[in-house]
Amino acid sequence: MLKGGVGQPFSLEGGRRRMGVRRTLAKKAAFIYDDALSGHVLSDTHPMKPVRLRYTYELLEAYGVLTAPTAMVVKPRVATEEEVLRHHTHAYVDAVKAYNVGKMPLNPERYNFAAGDNPPYKGVYDAALLSTGASLTAVELLLSGQADRAMNISGGLHHAMPGYTYGFCVFNDPVIAIKALVDKGLRVAYVDIDCHHGDGVQHAFYATDQVLTISLHESGAFLFPGTGFVQEIGAGKGRGYAVNVPLYPYTTSDVYLWAFREVVPPLLEAFRPDALVTQLGIDTHYLDPITHIAQTTQGFGDVVREFAKLDTKWLALGGGGYDLQAVARSWALAYAIMAGQELSNEIPASYSERYGIASLKDPDDLPIPQEVRKDVRTFAEGSVEAVHRLIFPLHGIRV
């Protein structure tokens, strides 16, 4: 029998613990959306295509999820400059404002805008303020009690740093949203399942114990941004509050879910957050053109269902995802789970006939060689064992 890193059987049926309290009442879930969120274009060749947001909205409409009693669609507001300055520097914000109207800021190289990953484009400041404002709109709905859960698929831009753009991200809306929650005295757990390490969020909270950051991602040894190793565990008061689970290329849904269950539920039980913020990047999908994890839509849904078991305020954000229909199917499924709705596998005709996508689910058995599957398991076991050894004792968790 394949053994896990702590001497326990490696089981694909369940993890070490279950997360929190199972919900017994229907939760009101807000979906933050306006077509304006999907209207900008980074460049003609850029893999980040905001039109994926509209596809997700259209698929939810086709399924009828948005008219369910547990659902509500809310238009976003625009973030204020003051709110953005909670995390970003004045100089950087001024540079983004200059690019917004087609001007070149002084010392442009310091802000990392360039053709390629982070192209400057007219309207960049307006677009970034709106996506950030969408996350803050979600926070306000949660704090006011108008919603128990809220999803902003335009958010999750987790790479942006205080003084420069990075990894397709201009303003770091997860950080700004989390700070808004912390300002109200809430302890926040941030769990990032994007294929890329959530480096910008980790950086912001690396030395505090008010925010627990957990990132599961393709190892930085193989993928941008080259960070997120298990040994990055926080500093000072934050030691033990930064958690990283790097994974091997072509990690499959079963191994991914096992690693998730071995790490995330026990830490959330120990931390007991008042609010959960999740970054639901779906560039982990096996069809994604720029990454290498072998997740399926149904595997992604299994992870989102783990979050749904936690009885707390829940803000879900978007993130990476560059196969546009994999994004639409996955995020529509995620919001349906948040709203307590079941989706049929057959895509409604109004959508499938337009976009040529017939099935919500992917094939269960992907053509991954057995030797790669073995490496995937071994690598995941090593990451989980290291988290158990380095992080769990700091939270009083026995393994």
Summarize the structure in short:
This protein has 11 helices and 8 strands. With 399 residues, it is an alpha/beta fold. Strand 4, helix 6 and strand 5 form a beta-alpha-beta unit.
Structure report:
This protein has 399 residues and is an alpha/beta fold. It has a single domain (29-395), classed as Arginase, Chain A. It has eleven helices and eight strands. The chain has helices at residues 51-63, 81-84, 90-100, 124-144, 173-183, 199-204, 253-271, 297-308, 324-338, 349-355, 370-390; strands at 29-32, 71-74, 149-152, 188-192, 211-218, 242-247, 275-279, 313-317. It has an eight-stranded parallel beta sheet with strand order 2-1-3-8-7-4-5-6, sandwiched between helices. Helix 4 (124-144) runs parallel beside helix 5 and helix 8 (297-308) runs parallel beside helix 9 (324-338). The chain is globular. Mean pLDDT is 93; it is low at 1-24.
Helix-strand blueprint:
Blueprint: E1 29-32, H1 51-63, E2 71-74, H2 81-84, H3 90-100, H4 124-144, E3 149-152, H5 173-183, E4 188-192, H6 199-204, E5 211-218, E6 242-247, H7 253-271, E7 275-279, H8 297-308, E8 313-317, H9 324-338, H10 349-355, H11 370-390
Parallel strand pairs: 1-2, 1-3, 3-8, 4-5, 4-7, 5-6, 7-8
Helix pairs in contact: 1-9, 4-5, 7-8, 7-11, 8-9
Instruction: Work out the count of structural domains.
Output: 1
Q: Which stretches of 5+ consecutive residues score pLDDT under 50?
A: 1-24
Shape: globular
- N-to-C series of helices and strands: EHEHHHEHEHEEHEHEHHH
